[in-house]
Design a protein that fits this description.
Radius of gyration: 18 Å
Structural class: alpha+beta
Signal peptide: 1-16
CATH topology: Alpha-D-Glucose-1,6-Bisphosphate, Chain A, domain 4
Distance between the termini: 31 Å
Strand content: 25-35%
Protein name: DUF4468 domain-containing protein
Shape: globular
Keywords: Signal
Length: 168
């Protein structure tokens, strides 16, 4: 009996997570996230609060295109990804945009990496697709870029999700 309850608990906890965002050569595909039923106006306010709290003291945040059921958040993330090339590690800062569209018991989240900056805040010309070859695989010399960026993006998405479902 205890084992059954324990397995049920772990199943419920594992189920209550947003889908994992995976890096493609063009960026990230949008995800659909299930949440408890919450009115859209409350979800908008919660998301605005999360954005301000998540970026407090670290980065500026822009909240734009606010409607009855959607909004767009733009901010920066320091050390968002890195790659190793010939034993040397290079860290990068990104400007990202999250577009979130709510519908009471779910939301669609689109995550876009815009500008990329060096660790010294110098804008670089490369965009995400430039790190991939024509077949969609990372170019040589950029090991760890995909894993580190996916980890950062999924941490941001998870933070938002946790804030939404734990607001009570």
């Amino acid at each position: 009996m205890r084992i059954t309850l324990l397995l049920l608990f772990f199943y419920c906890v594992a189920w209550a997570q947003p889908p994992v965002m995976e890096l493609q050569s063009y960026g990230f595909d949008p995800i659909e996230v299930s949440i408890p039923s919450i009115p859209n106006d409350k979800l908008i306010k919660l998301t605005q609060s999360w954005a301000m709290e998540y970026n407090f003291g670290k980065n500026t945040v822009d909240i734009t295109e606010v409607t009855d059921n959607s909004l767009t958040i733009s901010s920066f993330k320091k050390n968002a990804f890195y790659y190793r090339n010939y034993g040397e590690v290079f860290y990068f800062r990104i400007r990202y945009t999250m577009k979130i569209e709510f519908s009471q018991n779910s939301y669609k989240l689109s995550f876009n990496v815009g500008d990329i900056y060096t660790d010294g805040n110098v804008l670089i010309e490369y965009k995400l697709p430039d790190y991939f070859d024509s077949s969609g695989k990372l170019k040589d010399g950029y090991s760890a870029l995909d894993d580190s960026l996916e980890k950062t993006v999924n941490n941001i998405v998870q933070s938002h999700y946790d804030f939404i479902v734990n607001y009570r």
